[in-house]
Known about the structure:
The structure is a homodimer.
Chain A: E1 4-7, E2 10-13, E3 17-20, E4 24-28, E5 38-42, H1 54-74, E6 79-86, E7 98-104, H2 114-120, H3 133-147
Antiparallel strand pairs in A: 1-2, 3-4, 4-5, 5-7, 6-7
Amino acid sequence: MANTLRFGPIAVPLSQAFFVSKHAFGLVNLKPTQPGHVLVVSRRPVARLGDLSPDEVADLFVQGQRVGRAVEKLHAADGLTLCVQDGAAAGQTVPHVHLHVIPRRPGDFADNDDVYRELESRVDNDRRQPRSAADMAAEAAVMRRELGDWDDAI
Amino acid sequence: MANTLRFGPIAVPLSQAFFVSKHAFGLVNLKPTQPGHVLVVSRRPVARLGDLSPDEVADLFVQGQRVGRAVEKLHAADGLTLCVQDGAAAGQTVPHVHLHVIPRRPGDFADNDDVYRELESRVDNDRRQPRSAADMAAEAAVMRRELGDWDDAI
């Protein structure tokens, strides 16, 4: 397996991934909106959900369910926001299909919809500091322990 | 097949549905945020995504992809917002797993995140008038024509 995973134009080090399945992988965020806000990304680097095969769609969201359970448990949350911004007109910033999985608690944002405001501005928002590689690797390691090691043979 | 489909506490007439698959069905909205904003609902009436089996998750989102293609085409859109509000803490108002599929165009909301504000307030928003049963049946008929008739034997 390569030492990096492709996310749009970015080569992401494996240390920032927390699972790899047949058609998807999980990534921690450089600038999460919330602790535990992670991404599930299609392995095939296509822009739109409609570009994926049914098997690829199924794996992306079955993995999303699994990842959602893990972040909800790890972050003692009461719910999840799961969202695909499918195309630039929907706020997509990296042209590569990815599912946002965000643990939620009552009152975690002043207005409930502020979670989406943060989501839309995820890449551009200068108020949020990018995290260090060490922080991201540490979060990925916690997620890997929760989910179980992936099969390197995939 | 029964004459109604269950969506939380609501018995929805089949005239408002536009597909029924093994584990999911498609519904038009009483108060859509946008023309073409529709729902894909799990047939088993459980509240949380984590309550579904992997087969149920897979069908929900594979159907969501199919429905997304249809609404994007029918509404001449450039993208889609696909979102599950999974639990009350995430803004879920009907405690029954459902995927929002919303066709998007550049500039369709003053701020891109206003789509979510509308989504959060979908049930309570008194500014939006509920549509007539005839309007909803007409939209469902257009969607059925686009998607192909469902198999009544399901």
